[in-house]
Amino acid sequence: MAKILCVLYDDPSTGYPKSYARDEIPAITRYPGGQTAPTPKAIDFTPGELLGSVSGELGLRSFLESQGHTLVVTSDKDGDGSILDRELPDTDVVISQPFWPAYLTAERIAKAPNLKLAITAGIGSDHVDLDAAIEHGVTVAEVTYCNSISVAEHVVMMILGLVRNYIPSYQVVVNGGWNIADCVQRSYDLEGMHVGTVAAGRIGTAVLRRLAPFDVNLHYTDRHRLPESVERELNLTFHTSAAEMVPHCDVVTINAPLHPETEGLFGEKLLATMKRGSYLINTARAKIADRDAVVKALESGQLAGYAGDVWYPQPAPADHPWRTMPNHGMTPHISGSSLSAQARYAAGTREILESWLAGTPIRDEYLIVDGGRLAGTGAHSYSTRM
Length: 386
Ligand code: NDP
What we know:
The protein has 386 residues and is of the alpha/beta class. The chain has helices at 61-66, 83-87, 106-110, 130-136, 148-163, 166-174, 180-184, 202-211, 228-234, 242-245, 268-272, 291-300, 339-358, 376-381, and strands at 3-7, 70-74, 93-96, 117-120, 139-142, 194-198, 217-221, 236-239, 251-254, 278-282, 303-308, 367-370, 373-374. It has 14 helices and 13 strands.
């Protein structure tokens, strides 16, 4: 029998919801490109419920306990003596979400001799030390595509929010004011601007598709080039590197995974090559940008705005400088955890567990590390230090 340790974010401060703003969510069965949404044998939750917080338990308890497995759910993941650290030594499976990551460092993996599977209930497994997982034979899997469109929608929202100066203008209303000039002195149209994405995978391509009707000039860079038909359809300009692309752009959106190739990419040097007054949107991972270089670029006006929802560490400390830097549009890490996305990643987590517990293969597209090497999506999109 397996012990499954599930690390989730806390319930709402007002308690676990008894009702919701909407009665249903659209049923998404297939993603762009044809991949099917998760196909577990069954689910024990109603799509649209809060599943990502501790009381939601990703809807897993009755499924696991009915088969005799043990499920431990906690939000206590950091600091000496955390429940995560206490439970880890005899845990077989760790489930964690990037929004509230259980950092599975090499030290923690070394202290978890039973650990066989680390599931990311979402996308982005950089909170797991992939080299250590490879070394210790731990399989790493994530629910590929489950929230890619959720994030793409958030990116478009944040681009428009920054360029049109939405947040300060909203604040004027809340504060009882009406100074139009206060609002519009930093407000522009997106139309005609040059927008580039670093990475055109599932999220990056969805962002490009959503922005095309805004009559902008679209750019991208990626390790693999998109099919010519897509480049033509969206009128894309391909660049061989981020360094080559960013000087041409008014808006840059980062949509690559965090791995050794992308860590620290947006440092002082690259930011200095962007047009003065550019906007940078990062919903990928905080460490792809240099924390202090971003603050400096906003203070000097080199960047006109920075928005995103990814921080390091998470949760971000109260004094994190990105909370107070000028002209930012940060949110906590929420873009991939809408109630719509939760239904998909809870179902995907269950699908992965059903496969693993039955000894049948996990879908190749869900795999990041397997059999002591990068596998599936991991082999395509990640790199290791080794
Ligand atoms: P995909 O795997 O579909 O796409 C990632 C893309 O990044 C691939 O096209 C890959 O290239 C490309 N890439 C990798 N390394 C580089 C590099 N050095 N330079 C340029 N491109 C690179 O993943 P998604 O689009 O679904 O997600 C992307 C990332 O977004 C996730 O890894 C995660 O970190 C983040 N994310 C954030 C969420 C949030 O809530 N804020 C939720 C979901 C994801 P190729 O495969 O062609 O080699």
